[in-house]
């Protein structure tokens, strides 16, 4: 899709987990994760007047950490009361330097920062709901109050926090776009390829549109 002009009354950029903990050198590095920062900054410098950001924000000993489950390794899956949960290396620790928004991210147009994953017993990939898909982060209420209808997502990681956010946003009635070159994924093995492939199939079927930042030129 070419030539998207965001309407400041209804369109907002959602910047998901652009934190050093998910970048090369961080605790849960996404390949090329830091490459999203300049792309997002270009979107914030022109096309989008409004943005919100999210931060993965876990207490030490969080239940999504493999280290909290004796004998388990990162990237194994366990069954939690709310469903299957992938286990991760310790990451996104509240207040730690690597959990801050990336220092080069242009923050002037970021009007809200949503922190998620702070309940010890439940993970939160989506910016809308924790992983039980019921406990709200409050973001929907804020977007509704602001009159936002179209959500453009960027950040980390394509196949987890971006994908789950996009899926929930569609269910909540937003028109949702994922800006592909402003995202990077983890890409664990999955049926028919990686979790990135699987997420893209699932989101496309749900009505999410995939675009690139060139569409906003
Ligand atoms: Zn996390």
Q: How far is the first residue's CA from the last residue's CA? A: 12 Å
Write the element-wise H/E pattern from the N-terminal end onward.
EHEEEEHEHEEEHE
Into which percent range does the helicity of residues fall?
10-25%
Q: Would you give the CATH topology? A: Rossmann fold
CATH class: Alpha Beta
Going across the biggest sheet, name each strand in turn: 5-2-1-6-7-10
CATH homologous group name: Isochorismatase-like
User: How many domains make up the 3D coordinates?
Assistant: 1
* Major sheet details: 6 strands, parallel
State the total count of DSSP E strands: 10
Strand-pairing-aware structural class: alpha/beta
Unique bound compounds: zinc ion
The percent range for strand residues is 15-25%
Shape: globular
CATH architecture name: 3-Layer(aba) Sandwich
Number of helices: 4
Structural features, described:
Strands 5-2-1-6-7-10 form a six-stranded parallel β-sheet. A two-stranded antiparallel ribbon has the order 3-4. Strands 8-9 form a two-stranded antiparallel sheet. 20% of the residues lie in helices and 24% in strands. It is an alpha/beta fold and 217 residues long. α3 (158-171) packs parallel to α4. The protein is built from four helices and ten strands, in the order βαββββαβαβββαβ. It has one domain: Isochorismatase-like (Rossmann fold). α3 (158-171) links the parallel β6 and β7 (175-184).
Give the tags.
217 residues, alpha/beta, Rossmann fold, six-stranded parallel sheet, 10 strands, 20% helix, binds zinc ion
